[in-house]
């Protein structure tokens, strides 16, 4: 009976270690650069900030990812500061495949993009927009340790649907959407 118990414990331990070795989830955090659409933005269109996401594998090559990011910028316009920030709350599928230590991936994420501009120095208060956004992109993870990867590049094309009453181009024409780019780099923890 004792040999059977030891065998059972050894088999259970072996299966638990093999399951532990399979990466089922990941957490990512890093720097983000959001490049605003040149038609809708003032002269300086780069917002700097952070990018974070959590993902869970549902198949060996397919994950569901939740992404949250925030970018900020202050620009002097006519002697007054205009503070702008953008937040993205997105989720969707990601496909990836391992090639040794390198794992390329591609994703399509959907959700809310919240933009805010502080115009109090111009007597207009704060302008806030909540819009539907789509991020289509991908990147590369490079394995640095058993449960750690470096993500040197994640690049997304960000289509943001806008309210034409609130967003105009430099000539005052209404815009129903903006075309933006988002770059990110950071570290990924695998569990």
Structural class: mainly beta
**How many independent structural domains?**
1
Largest sheet: 8 strands, antiparallel, barrel
> How many DSSP helices?
1
Beta-strand content: over 45%
Number of strands: 8
Q: Which architecture per CATH?
A: Beta Barrel
Query: What separation lies between the terminal Cα atoms?
Result: 36 Å
**What is the 3D form?**
elongated
**Secondary-structure element string:** HEEEEEEEE
Strand order in the largest sheet: 1-2-3-4-5-6-7-8
Topology of helices and strands:
Elements: H1 2-21, E1 25-35, E2 46-59, E3 62-77, E4 80-96, E5 102-118, E6 126-145, E7 148-161, E8 177-190
Antiparallel strand pairs: 1-2, 1-8, 2-3, 3-4, 4-5, 5-6, 6-7, 7-8
Write up this protein.
The structure is a single chain. This protein is mainly β. The protein has a single domain (23-190), classed as Beta Barrel (Porin), CATH 2.40.160. The protein has one helix at 2-21, and strands at 25-35, 46-59, 62-77, 80-96, 102-118, 126-145, 148-161, 177-190. The chain has an 8-stranded antiparallel β-barrel with strand order 1-2-3-4-5-6-7-8. The longest helix is centred in the N-terminal third of the chain and has 20 residues, at 2-21. Mean pLDDT is 85; it is low at 4-21.
